[in-house]
Sequence to fold (199 residues):
Amino acid sequence: MDHPLHWLDDRVYLDLMRIGLQRDGAPDTFRTQRFSNLLQAFQTTFDLEGDTAEAGCLFGLATFMMCGYEKARNSSFNGAGHHLFDSFIGLSFPDQQDLQQSEPNEWLRTMLGRRKTTTGKWPAGQSFLKRTQEVLADYPGLTCNDDFWLKRCRDARAAFAKDPASLHTYSAWDEVPGSPRTRERWGQWLARYRPLVEE
Fold:
């Protein structure tokens, strides 16, 4: 395992992060440090076959970094085989109840100052998708998948509206309509994870 500060000597990483943050436009918020772990893990997949993906990307900085590393070892790489999954509709607008301290942190100050509209909401979904595509303009071959999560939510709402007594869909990973085995399956996973957090 590399030293935790190995990224300080990684010129590819530092150059990509500098360019990515400029395009992303949001504060660093320790992403320079945190993303080093992501890229270190990503490099361990270079010898594996298959596509890569990111689920939940905001404006695509992590994907920009991963694609940059791929391009560094393959100059013809254009993003093909990498997939983004996100609703691209943003989050609810942060307000005072979201603050955990007396003063907004740098990230929230930026969001509060730049994102608020006359309706108090974040920009429409197309704005998020367009912004992400601008950040990732160097990689026209990648795909942005913005319908899976929303389609699953719409299907679940429609199923409940049709039959309120039907089984609920508890998450985007559950079936629509809900499966009678969901509670049992979650219990099985809980039994596996619980020992990891118990003394």
Observations:
- The helical segments are 11-24, 31-43, 61-73, 106-114, 125-135, 148-162, 182-197.
